[in-house]
Amino acid sequence: MTGNVLTKLPTLPALPGWNSIRGRMAIVLAVPTCLLLVLTGLGVADRAADWSAARGTEAQVGVLLRVQDLVRELQRERGLSNGLLGGAEEYRDDVRKQRNRTDDAHSALRAVLAQESSDLPDASASALDDAQVPLADLSTTRTDVDAGTADRAGTLAYYTKAVTALIDAESAGAAHGERRITEGVQALQALARATEAVALERGSLNGVFAAGRFRGGEYLDFTEIRATRLAALGQFRQLATSAQQSDLDAAFKTAAARRVGGYETQAERGADGSSLNVAPARWWGDMTTLVDDLHDVQRTVGDDVRAVAEDSGAAATRELAGFLGLGALIVAVATALAVISARSITRPLGALADEADAVAGTRLPTAVKRIQEANPDTPHPGGPNDPGGPQLPGTAREITRLAAALRNVEHTAVGLAAEQAVLRRNSTESLASLGRRNQTLLRRQLGLITTLENQELDPNALAELFELDHLATRMRRNAESLLVLAGEEAPARSWPGMVTVAEVVQSAVAEVEQYRRVAAVDVEACRIRGHAVAELSHLLAELVENALMFSPPQQQVEVYGWRDGAEYCLAVVDRGIGMTLERMAEANALLSGSGSFLTAPTRFLGHHVVGALASRLGAHVELRPTAGSGVTAYVALPAALVREPSSTAVVSG
Q1: Alpha carbon distance 216, 208 (integer Å)
Q2: How many CA atoms lie within 13 A of 146 on its CB side?
Q3: Are 555 and 576 in contact (CB under 8 A)?
Q4: How far apart are CA 477 and CA 489, in angstroms?
Q5: What gap in Å lies between CA 161 and CA 165, rounded to an integer?
Q6: What is the C-alpha separation between 518 and 573, in angstroms, rounded?
Q7: Residues 6+ apart with CB under 8 A from 506
Q8: How far is CA 400 from CA 349, 355, 359, 388, 498, in A?
Q9: Where are the residues of the annotated region Disordered (predicted)?
Q10: Does the predicted TM-score (pTM) go above 0.70?
Q11: Which of 23, 75, 452, 494 places its Cα 20 to 30 Å from the Cα of 407?
């Protein structure tokens, strides 16, 4: 036969802090807070990237302007050197001065690269380093130019290669960020290529005009240079702003630019190799003016790009600070909400916990004690109509309900305590009444048995009467035990004067069933005050009977007595099965008078009786292990109950 099998789902591990309300509130608020912080972090990363790009663009534009300064000086040195190689000796001093300006521009570029290389893109910094490699042969080229052994076309190509490498290096690692910055950098690079084309045309035709005609493929180079210039200018116009286009138009509308156009028209007529009558110095001067104007436009464009980059960087900085402030605000608000929410819950709960502790530790025990001590007919306080307990204004409905439930629990507990007190009082009074009735009946029975014993002459019948007398005596002790458990005063039996300890022991032994197994081995002489004899005899009888019950049938129980200073000690020794240390500790707790017999198992009632009697007598009773096996019950009687023995023994009963 098969059936459904219920499997226990695996328990997930508890989150750290989940065992407290504050921890749970923190976790609940931490999840959306973390999500908001992630979104804020993405915004911070994006703004940081924009800020870094703007900062890199500023550095790159600054370096590009330095590169353009070097390009400008190389372009001038290229044109002058080409004119010198074309036969214009008047350029020799200008070439020498121009070389110094070129070297100064190169040194300035290296200094800027060393300072700004960390802010440049890696590709841009690497390309600029590679672009300076051709300049290593600059001194050799200059030596060949001074010696007149350099080829004009080859020298022009060398300078052009160096300039082109620098311009191409400007395009490497181009900034990618805001559209205006990207287009501005691209416009700056397009203008740089157009300026190079104009400068290259200046240098190329400078040599042609110095030589008086085109040679070889120089005219074809001239047309290619003009086509490159026009293409670069067209790209610039697509990317430049209207103000930048106006600056470019102004550069081409100057008188020098118009004369340059006339010179170019004359150059076009010499395409067949015919003679050209253009003074190289005039061409150089007007063309240099145009190139300088174009460089000024480049600087203006670069300044515009740098300004845009600065504005973008400032905006990115503000937005970055805003995102960081927003993140801090989110954390602060979440923390404040967590603290306020947790305190709004934990404070009322703490008050409820304090109230519960007060109920359990003070109010409820006090109410129960008051109920137990009050008149049964008096209504007990703390009922359902008693509001009781502090109010918790301003708290959540759930906590208010919890407080009301706690008060209901208190009222119910008080009501139950009242019912239990009544029940306990009724039970105690019933036991006491039953005990007194039994005691009265047993006293009459013992009186009748004594009368029959005095009248009986038959030994067999007399022996049976003695057994009946012994049985009635045991029943009387049980009735007295019932009165002791019910908290009644001492039994009516009392002896005037003093009684010896030996007689007290004999009286106790007479009240147990197997009295023949009890032996008073060594009882030192001493006297006990009469008012304590009945209770002490009852106490010893309970201990002796307990020892007889838990020892072998053939084994004797021994009683010892001795003085210990002002006190007198008795010991009931058995060698039976013994007790565990835990069970012996529990029994000693009962013998000390603690605990209630109404909640104790019935097999421990004898210990309650002994504890109650010991408390009345002011005696101390304790169980200890017997050497070998068994248990020894020690009874220490206070000095107020004992007296030194005298020559005359007083015995009464």
Answers
A1: 11
A2: 11
A3: yes
A4: 15
A5: 6
A6: 10
A7: 520
A8: 10, 13, 17, 14, 68
A9: 373-395
A10: no
A11: 23
